[in-house]
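Meet my pick.
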Amino acid sequence: MEDKVDLLAITGSDWRGKNHQFEALFDYATIGILVTDHSGIILNFNKYAEIQFGCNKGEIIGNTVEKLIPISLHSIHRGHWEEFYKHPEPRRMGEGRD
């Protein structure tokens, strides 16, 4: 069984600038969090995710989430992503994939 990445995916595009408390929690969370739009484009990427993935926010924002996974898994990941968007809910990446 593979270890799960302690990372939370949040969907939605209108979260920005609405709540300063949320932004503080987002920036200083002790889990990696990324925010995407409906097509998988990364809109925000917190500091802990930078550490987990070894890249900075500026390199990631505007790319699809597939940039963060091995090329060999892109097509299967896209299928998981599309299924997630049919029934979105906060969850750990890889949860239920065992």
About this structure: The first strand starts at residue 5 and ends at 11.
